[in-house]
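Handout, section B. The chain below has 278 residues.
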Amino acid sequence: MCDLHGCGAHRDMPPIAVPDAERRAFLKGLVALPLAAVLFDPVLGHFGTLDKFITREMVEIPTDGDNPVRGALALPEADSAPAILLIHEWWGLNDQIKAVAAEYAKLGFVAFAIDLFDSKPTTDPEEAMKLVQGLDTEKATAKLVTAINWLASRKNANGKVGTIGWCFGGGWSLDASLAAPVDATVIYYGDVNKTAEELTALDGPVLGHFGTLDKFITREMVERFQSAMAEAGKADFLTVHWYEADHGFANPSAARYDADDAKLAWDRTLEFLKAYLG
């Protein structure tokens, strides 16, 4: 099941195979498998194992009022590093997104994976839809602005902040960048239905990853987005990459996962973030 908010059920995903030799090597600390893949290996896939290899903690950002901002924070070894705000899919803040945050921290970024739902994650599409439909968009926007400002002002950050999101979170990655100035925005197959007037608020470059087989975030939608960006005078801000893949291709827990395209998108994203965040 897919729509503009989410795609695929975890129970329908194909198994991720981690060879026994690599599994043993990982446990000995000899190789670095992608953490998102490790999470879904039947032997390695629990945080009791991962705690030995990653540092992340659940934090709450102080706010005035009744709109707390919670999420998973992963820190790099560097004393001064660029920051990334990660925005989850419609499943909520699950282990897969936390693992991606940890991976970015290993690569030198302060990574904060926000919880927009303030709820336990789910693997049920019907429950996910309820979470999306119950979201207060004004409060969600305020949470994202608070998180961006908090990341920009952290003592162990260099002041630069990027946003990145997938599916439901891909649309919110763009929304966050319209609500608060950021230095880079990454969208994985997210809703980009915006007017030129709305896009004038953008203050930094945007990278988009989209699948040619996606029936929900379609080429027509993305082309309208490109036209709106041009009308807003932001054409030079936008880079779009297309993949012969379906919605959710970068998520190893999704039924439509495509390992080759996921790696290519990951490499392009990392290059983009390093270029604009330092």
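Note. Residues 259-277 form the longest helix (19 residues). Compare this with the example in section A.
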